[in-house]
Design goal:
- The protein is of the alpha+beta class.
- About 50% of the residues lie in helices and about 25% in strands.
- The chain has a 4-stranded antiparallel sheet. Strands 2-7-4-5 form a 4-stranded antiparallel sheet.
- β4 and β5 form a beta hairpin.
- α2 runs antiparallel to α4 and α7 packs across α8.
- The longest helix is centred in the C-terminal third of the chain and has 26 residues.
- The chain is globular and about 55 Å long.
């Protein structure tokens, strides 16, 4: 049950048996049905989630209520609204399941205690945060400087196989284009 999440931690830190047991003791396992939410914009984010199976989307709503996908979190990805989680403030982002999704959750209080009990985990989450900031900066730059075709190619590279699993409207929202234009891009790519 814990194979994927422990392998994810092992990318950056090596935990001994006691540290692994301490980590596993705070993990909360949940199954989120397709279209159900883990976090609504405006609520306080109380967890970080690891996607064991399935796919989440992180999105925000504009003043007209239209949703804009900013990140997809398939297997082996982490999801949260970090500003809300860290500052106990209302979330800017929402998080919902694009397919039935199995996650492991860690609460803020449990994570803070893990940093004390297993200091290696503070290093892991620092690296995770640095990687997330790098991804955010790269995505922001791509949205400002790349064409829709280039953004689509980057999506396909970053999320291999995801295109066949989620609705076209979600991909279009992520790319900042309409579903009709996405269909045109797909047709051009096939030719």
């Amino acid at each position: 049950m814990f194979h994927y999440i422990l392998a994810n931690f092992a990318i950056h830190v090596q935990l001994n048996d006691a540290e692994t047991a301490r980590l596993v003791s705070v993990l909360q396992h949940h199954v989120v049905e397709k279209n159900d939410s883990l976090l609504q914009p405006g609520s306080v984010c109380r967890h970080v989630w690891f996607v064991n199976k399935g796919c989440l989307r992180v999105f925000n709503r504009d003043k007209d209520g239209e949703e804009h996908n900013v990140l997809f979190c398939p297997e082996n990805w982490w999801a949260s609204d970090m500003a809300s989680f860290s500052n106990h403030a209302p979330a800017y982002y929402g998080i919902s399941a694009l397919e039935t999704t199995e996650v492991f959750a860690i609460t803020y209080q449990a994570l803070e205690q893990l940093y004390v009990d297993v200091p290696k985990l503070e290093r892991f989450f620092r690296i995770l945060s640095q990687n997330g900031l790098s991804l955010f900066q790269y995505r922001l730059n791509a949205n400002l400087s790349k064409t829709a075709e280039e953004r689509y190619a980057l999506f396909q590279k970053q999320y291999p196989g995801l295109e066949q699993r989620i609705a076209q409207k979600h991909i279009a929202s992520y790319l900042g284009i309409t579903p009709v234009f996405l269909s045109m891009l797909r047709n051009r790519a096939v030719r």
